[in-house]
Design brief:
Structural class: alpha+beta
Shape: globular
Largest sheet: 7 strands, antiparallel
Order of helices and strands: EHEEEEEEHH
Number of helices: 3
Helix content: 10-25%
């Protein structure tokens, strides 16, 4: 199976990928529009993403460029701090960080947010990428609508383990990335997209 080619999403060049999509259908365009407006509210409330999944897959926290948690609409240059649900008694190095590189609202029928693994906010010219995937990986989150459906999708591209770190973290990243290859993280993303469109 090949990665889908979708405008705005980087081409798959190396490493792993995933195309995760969930669709909810409705009886008419009026109901679809109503549900899409609710989906938009959910989509931009990143701090609540983890609550929409049937299982608590992760905790998402929107942060500004100084790593301070914020409760507002996301903007380009913000960060998302992610804590996987399997982590108990989390420490600072258990969090994964991604930076929002792109937000596209130009299409009236879809919205796109694109992120990539990052260094700690405020430390972009020093330190290591703080994520189990490398800095060349992208995750693109898209919501869209048609006449009788709403859809949420997450497209992961060029997923490779992050080796730009210390030896212990490098080994841990390879293990977590391998779990993603065999399906664990793909299932988690599917739980998120299903939950988001289940309105």
């Amino acid at each position: 199976m090949k990665a889908k080619k979708i405008p705005g999403i980087p081409l798959q060049v190396k490493g792993q990928f995933h195309d995760t999509e969930s669709i909810q259908k409705f009886d008419n365009a009026q109901e679809t529009e109503l549900k899409y407006n609710i989906l938009k509210e959910r989509f931009f409330d990143i701090n609540k993403w983890g609550t929409y999944s049937k299982e608590n897959i992760a905790e998402f926290t929107l942060c500004d460029s100084t790593a301070k948690a914020v409760d507002r609409l996301p903007i380009i240059g913000d960060y998302i701090k992610i804590l996987l649900s399997e982590v108990q008694n989390p420490e600072r190095n258990n969090y994964q960080w991604v930076r929002i590189d792109m937000i596209d609202k130009t299409n009236p029928n879809s919205i796109m947010i694109q992120c990539r693994p990052s260094k700690l906010p405020g430390d972009q010219f020093a330190g290591n990428t703080v994520h189990f995937h490398s800095g060349g990986t992208t995750s693109t989150f898209i919501i869209s609508k048609g006449n009788d459906y709403i859809k949420m999708a997450i497209y992961g591209r060029n997923e490779k383990p992050n080796q730009n770190t210390d030896v212990i973290s490098s080994i841990k990243n390879m293990f977590i990335a391998f779990k993603g290859v065999v399906g664990s993280s793909k299932i988690q993303w599917k739980l998120l997209t299903d939950g988001m469109v289940n309105i």
